[in-house]
Design a protein that fits this description.
The protein is an alpha+beta fold. It is 45% helix and 13% strand. The protein has helices at 22-26, 76-81, 88-92, 99-108, 118-126, 133-147, 166-171, 174-179, 186-197, 203-206, 211-219, 226-235, 247-257, 266-275, 281-301; strands spanning 10-18, 35-36, 41-45, 48-56, 61-72, 150-151, 160-161. It has a five-stranded antiparallel β-sheet with strand order 1-5-4-3-2. Strands 6-7 form a two-stranded antiparallel sheet. Strand 6 (150-151) and strand 7 (160-161) form a beta hairpin. Helix 4 (99-108) crosses helix 15 (281-301) and helix 5 runs antiparallel to helix 12 (226-235). The chain is globular and about 55 Å long. It binds a DNA duplex through residues 29-30, 125-126, 128-136, 138, 178, 181-186, 188, 222-228, 231, 244-249, 265-267, 289, 293.
Length: 308
DNA sequence: AGCCAGGACTAAT
DNA sequence: ATTAGTCATGGC
């Protein structure tokens, strides 16, 4: 379904894809560098400025168009990042056939899991603990502006910088990280950067471990527990069985699947998350997360769910 | 003013 | 093996 990669260097590329929800994909709290305006999303991936837009083509087919600041001949890296090559229909077909899941898929059909760079994903999610998504975006933006290398942008657009690598982060002090609003997370990000910079931790070697082994390698880092490790496993390493359980998912699972229970223990919810959602549970999790934050969040806030 | 945010860690049961 | 308290900070 993706268009053939052209041999000519170019600034734009378009793909025609079935079921691609660009807004839900870029704006569902997987990655934190994407900002929308009236008709497109702007971000930085792999040190490149990118502008993305999507338009409805004919029945179910979406045209996704990317524009860069510098021409490239090979677009495979972006196609992979955006998961354009993913057979989404086959994944949705493995979801449990129950009412909450049907509602979540109906609400955000076309949402895909990105395939991010492990370091940026890891550092971003270390910064995520007890922060709202808008605040995580601000932290990542400050880190990039102050510690990252500037990237080429089109004339007339805001300056942008790449996400700083482990060596760059390790070379700035904890105080500089705290100035980027990391708070108590600053020493955690710094320690992760140092271990990678010294060669004590190899994020590419983790790719070759099985999921429990990879999870153990990540949680060995200070500031990385089960939830953050599963975010990195899912959003960077593409482990379909990783299922991050955050406060939104906890609330969604409890209210949607255990509506009569007075209280559901976190142990029970974790066990449920591991057994109920099938081989692509992580994908199902992202649908539930976005559905809960968009549709259900307003209903919960208005007390509409406690009215029965 | 108080509570919550894509948690993790430590100490106390 | 589960449960509070603490951490830094901003939004509502």
């Amino acid at each position: 379904m993706p268009a053939a990669t052209s041999g000519e260097p170019g600034l734009t590329q378009a793909w025609r894809v079935r079921d691609y929800a660009l807004g839900a994909t870029l704006g569902s709290g997987q990655a934190f560098r994407w900002y929308p305006d009236a008709d497109a999303w702007t971000g930085v991936v792999a040190g490149r400025w990118i502008r993305l837009r999507s338009t409805e083509a004919d029945d179910g087919i979406v045209e996704v168009t990317a524009t860069l600041a510098e021409p490239v001949t090979d677009w495979t890296w972006l196609e992979r990042y955006l998961a354009i090559d993913e057979n989404l229909g086959a994944i949705l077909g493995t979801f449990p056939d129950d009412e909450p899941m049907r509602a979540a898929v109906a609400a955000c059909r076309g949402l895909r899991l990105l395939r991010q760079e492990p370091w940026e994903c890891l550092a971003s999610f270390i910064c995520s603990s007890t922060k709202q998504i808008v605040q995580i975006q601000e932290i990542v933006r400050l880190l990039s502006q102050r510690c990252g290398t500037p990237v080429k942008v089109p004339e007339g657009t805001l300056p942008q910088a790449a996400f700083p690598g482990p060596t760059a982060v390790a070379s700035v002090g904890e105080a500089a990280l705290r100035a980027c609003k990391l708070g108590f997370r600053a020493p955690y990000v710094l320690e992760a950067a140092r271990r990678i910079d010294r060669g004590e931790l190899d994020l590419e070697a983790i790719r070759r471990l099985d999921t429990p082994g990879a999870r153990a390698a990540l949680t060995a880092l200070p500031g990385v527990g089960r939830k953050i490790a599963d975010c990195v496993l899912l959003f960077a390493y593409g482990r379909p069985d990783a299922f991050p359980v955050d406060v939104w998912i906890q609330k969604a699972l409890a209210r949607l699947y255990f509506p009569r229970a007075r209280r559901v223990t976190s142990k029970r919810l974790l066990q449920f998350s591991e057994t109920h959602f099938g081989p692509h549970g992580g994908y199902a999790q992202q649908y539930l997360f976005h559905y809960a934050r968009t549709v259900l969040g307003r209903a919960w806030a208005s007390g509409a769910d406690t009215a029965d």
